[in-house]
Amino acid sequence: MSKTTTLPVPAAATAAARLPATLRVGWSRAVLETRMFFRERDSLIFTFSFPVVLLVLFGSIFRGEFEDSGVSVSQLYAAGLIGAGLMSVSFQNLAIAIAVEREDGTLKRLAGTPMPPAAYFVGKVLSVLLAAVLEVALLLAVGVLLYDLEPPADAARWATFAWVFVLGLAACSLLGIAFSSLPRSAKSASAVVTLPFVALQFVSGVFIPFAELPQWVTHLASLFPLRWMCQGFRSVFLGDAGAALELTGSYELDRVALILAAWTVGGLLLCLKTFRWTSRREG
């Protein structure tokens, strides 16, 4: 009887075979994450309704138009809150949820399973992507129906909307994963994550025109992605008329793309550097 010889499998082929498996498991994790998210009705209602409530409140209280622009105050809020809503479902939700899962031992148990570690993050990001699409669609609908926000009228603006959405979501998701290692416990996670996020909204042009803020505030806000996300979305929904409200009189879309891409790379590096599968108490 002839002896069967087993040929060695090249490393590249092994990696190629592993990738589809990771994506399949990641998709399964995304389905599970999404189901769990929609079962938590209190959290679900708060997540989607909070930016809408802010839009209705500010849009109803502050009326009128900015001089020489034709842009209403409510339109400015609607465009800015689309960026804030996107950051809410990505950065804020991921940072808090992962901190809780680390504290209750979920991450440690998952790390001990055959599941590829990357599949966990694929599942999280896909779940966040669905939530982000729903959040932005809801805010856009309210802005259009109640506050005369004009959807993009040409393909170029829709393209800008798409890349600002993708880069903003990627940057904020990665920063949320990295930031999840900062809270010392699950109980403190909400306060530790929410405080800087709320502060960023007020200094990033969400509620106050960026050109009206003190110079030191604009310099500080320019270090973070929310300012640039909001600026990108204002370019889409406010058009040339809204450019006069910007600090430089221009939307600076090239800089928006560059900084959001830099935060995406930086967020990935921070994740690789800081992410922990176990709590600090376990070392």
TrEMBL record:
Membrane topology annotation: Multi-pass membrane protein
Domain ABC transmembrane type-2: 42-278
Subcellular location: Cell membrane; Membrane
InterPro entries xrefs: ABC2_TM, ABC2_TM_bact-type, Nod_factor_ABC_transporter
A Pfam family it matches: ABC2_membrane
Domain of life the protein comes from: Bacteria
Keyword annotations from UniProtKB, A to Z: Cell membrane, Membrane, Transmembrane, Transmembrane helix, Transport
Record field: transmembrane: 44-64, 76-100, 121-146, 158-179, 191-211, 256-275
A cellular-component GO term for this protein: plasma membrane
An example Gene Ontology molecular-function term: ABC-type transporter activity
Annotated PANTHER family: NODULATION PROTEIN J
Similarity comment text for this entry: Belongs to the ABC-2 integral membrane protein family.
Name this polypeptide is given: Transport permease protein
Species: Thermopolyspora flexuosa
Taxonomic placement: Bacteria, Bacillati, Actinomycetota, Actinomycetes, Streptosporangiales
